[in-house]
């Protein structure tokens, strides 16, 4: 682990271990259901959370490539794993083991937006009832007519 990885909190370390293992064994795990038993129920929540650290979002996106199921296991049922996780082997260094956070061809399907999406005015009108000032009467009628499909 590098200096930054040493400072990860327990949940991040656990997620890092899963990502590292999934990446290491990727050829064997693709198209296979993988069940991860963990005592950190928070990992299930992280897989669904939309707003968190960028590093965690990258890891979750990487894990979405797999058919992954995270099952909670109480610490009392998982004593061997607890014991093994607390052992430290003397003289071993994990400095060279860094997770590969890059996605191959990540820019391949990148979308560049020059303007606002088509639905911005529609969403703003549905939420606030305010029509943009620059709209003509015909545009206002069309906006209200389009809103009928969503409201």
From TrEMBL:
Cross-referenced CDD domains: RNase_HI_RT_Ty3
Keywords: Endonuclease, Hydrolase, Nuclease, Nucleotidyltransferase, RNA-directed DNA polymerase, Transferase
Keyword Nuclease: yes
GO MF annotations, alphabetized: endonuclease activity; hydrolase activity; RNA-directed DNA polymerase activity
All copies of domain Reverse transcriptase RNase H-like, residue ranges: 1-66
Protein name: Uncharacterized protein LOC104250158
């Amino acid at each position: 682990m590098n200096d930054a990885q040493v400072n990860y909190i327990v949940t991040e370390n656990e997620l890092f271990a899963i990502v590292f293992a999934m990446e290491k064994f990727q050829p064997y795990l693709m198209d296979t259901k993988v069940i991860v038993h963990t005592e950190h129920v928070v990992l299930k929540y992280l897989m669904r959370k939309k707003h968190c650290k960028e590093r965690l979002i990258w890891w979750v996106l990487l894990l979405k490539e797999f058919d992954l199921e995270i099952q909670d296991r109480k610490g009392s049922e998982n004593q061997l794993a607890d014991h093994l996780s607390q052992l430290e082997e003397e003289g071993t260094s994990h400095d060279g083991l860094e997770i590969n956070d890059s996605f191959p061809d990540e820019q391949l399907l990148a979308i560049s937006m020059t303007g606002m999406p088509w639905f911005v005015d529609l969403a703003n009108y549905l939420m606030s009832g305010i029509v943009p000032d620059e709209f003509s009467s015909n545009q206002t009628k069309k906006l209200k007519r389009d809103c009928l499909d969503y409201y």
